[in-house]
Amino acid sequence: MEIDGDRARLDSILSGLGVAYELFPCDPALADTAQFCAAYGFALDESANTIVVVGKSEPRVYAACVVLAPHRLDVNRTVRNRLGSRKASFASADETRDLTGMAIGGVTPFGLPPDLPIWVDAAVMAQPRVVLGGGSRSWKVIASPSILLALPNVAVVEGLAGAAPPPGSD
Predict the structure, then answer these.
(1) Which of 104, 110, 95, 94 minimizes the C-alpha distance to 7?
(2) pLDDT tens digits for 44-76?
(3) What is the per-residue pLDDT across 76-128, written as a single tens digit (0 to 9) for each?
(4) Domain ranges of the chain
(5) One-character DSSP codes across 92-152
(6) SS3 32
(7) Is the peptide bond before 152 cis (omega within 30 degrees of 0)?
């Protein structure tokens, strides 16, 4: 069964990090953060999304960014500057899948290609626990944010994201 395979893959990656974690099964139809939090009783402030970004230089450069759900990734300044490109954007669903093997809504920082930088917004590290994608839309990972520091190519970045403005104020 796919779900069992997803869990086994995730367990094999996480068990080697030396940090306690919990795997939380979820309905794939509820994997998007707001729906997941509403359905399962988690706060948006403790949920973090992993977003793949691309610098539009040649060759294209990529990074994975981990930000709290209610925050907005600073693609036009912080991400672009860190990528060293004149333009940056969110990677498309196809680019994300090709690069990570994961679908949007289930992307996790665990098991990414070893040469892909992982940038974690400093606000994520201030949380007592975070809920992260589990590599598929069927699993979430709940852990102390310190689990992220056990990954290769991780940098904690101040100002990677900021609180999103209230709806309708853009």
Answers:
(1) 110
(2) 999 999 999 999 888 999 999 999 999 999 999
(3) 999 999 999 999 999 999 999 999 999 888 899 999 999 999 999 999 999 99
(4) 2-163
(5) PHHHHHHHHS--TTS--STT--TTS-EEEEHHHHTSS-EEEE-SSTTEEEEE-GGGGGGST
(6) coil
(7) no
User: Which amino acid does the sequence have at 170?
Assistant: D
C-alpha 165/C-alpha 170 separation (Å) is 7
d(CA 84, CA 62): 11
Collapsing DSSP states into helix, strand and coil, what is residue 67?
A: strand
Which amino acid is residue 124, in one-letter code? V
End-to-end CA distance of the chain: 44
What CATH number has the domain spanning 2-163? 3.90.960.10
β-partners of residue 135 are: none
